[in-house]
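note to self: dont lose this again. the chain is below, predicted strucutre after it. 183 aa total, dont forget to put it in the shared folder this time
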Amino acid sequence: MDAVPLPSVLFDRRWDVAHTNPAFDALFRGVGPHPTAMPHQNFLRFVLFHPDAPRVLAEHDTSWCLPLMAQLAGLLEGEEDESLQAVRDDIALDPIMDAAYRCGLPLWMSAVGAEAIHHDGAVRPVNHPDPRWGSTDCRVVDETPARLEAKGYTRLTLVLRENRSATPGVRQGKARLRAVSGG
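---
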């Protein structure tokens, strides 16, 4: 994992982070401290509760929170888990998040479909602190080998799209045609 030049994270079924690579660390390097929601501790809690998450994870509510809430809802349907239930309990403490979970999430899932629960292949926006990447999209790729999956782990890699505006010699903005009088 450490040799992969793109952000990669390994977490268990509770989203507790087991390992991150240097590219993941670089993506979240500007994140301030939080008692329960650091990206290197529990990625689900980071996305849902850390005040800096929207700064890194662009279009935070629709591109990151709702898909992860959908996964949480699916996991809670399948079994009792104190750690995951604690996340749900923390959502319930915030009236806006609770309304999103109870009312908005079912509507969103019916509009988006079953794919909302799966990460693999999803394209989501990020704001990378490295100007080479900048504000860009990433494709979330599930790279979990069978041996890790059997132990309840998931490995996700964020395949970043290079920020064309940061590429030397490439103009920003839309090309425009103008009529020029030659007289």
